[in-house]
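Review form for a predicted model. The reviewer records the input and the model, then writes brief findings.
Reviewer: anonymous (R2)
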Amino acid sequence: MINLPVSTLYQILSLPFCNKVVKKLHWFRKTTYNKQVSCSIFRTGTMLFLCEKLINTMIRKKTLLIVDDSIVVVDRLIPMLENLENIALVIHAGSYEEAIEMLAAITPDFILLDIQLPDKSGIELLREIREKDQEIVVIMISNHATPEYGKVCKSLGAQHFFDKSKDFELISNVIEEVY
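Model under review:
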């Protein structure tokens, strides 16, 4: 168990990943029939305990950023990846610009990166990522998975290169087993 000052825990409560938990707790409070149970959850000490549990979970588990403009692909990836034991948070960016904004705010452990993005190439984003951080695991995904693209991506620092139409199920296997 980590011990953080109360002020730090309150700051953490305001972070985006905590907002999701807090919203779910508020939903629980509104829908529960036993008001005593819901009131005890919202006592300050209990909220801090829940935040500390969330922080401990986040320390052990990984964050994954999906950069892909295909809603069909993202809708299929998110549930598959959220169920992995080693993933705590899956977030999504639909373009190069959105990804740059998110990467300025957070450092994910994994990035699933499509080659074809609406505003710039995923290969350009891969270059940008590698200039700033060598530690992030980058997995390139594409419907145009030619050997040439694979070589370019791996030479720029991508750890894996998958064809979305053929290798879809391998993505979760690699993330779960290798990392």
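Findings: Confidence is low (pLDDT under 50) at residues 28-42.
Further findings: Strands lie at 62-67, 87-93, 110-114, 137-142, 160-163.
Recommendation: see findings above.
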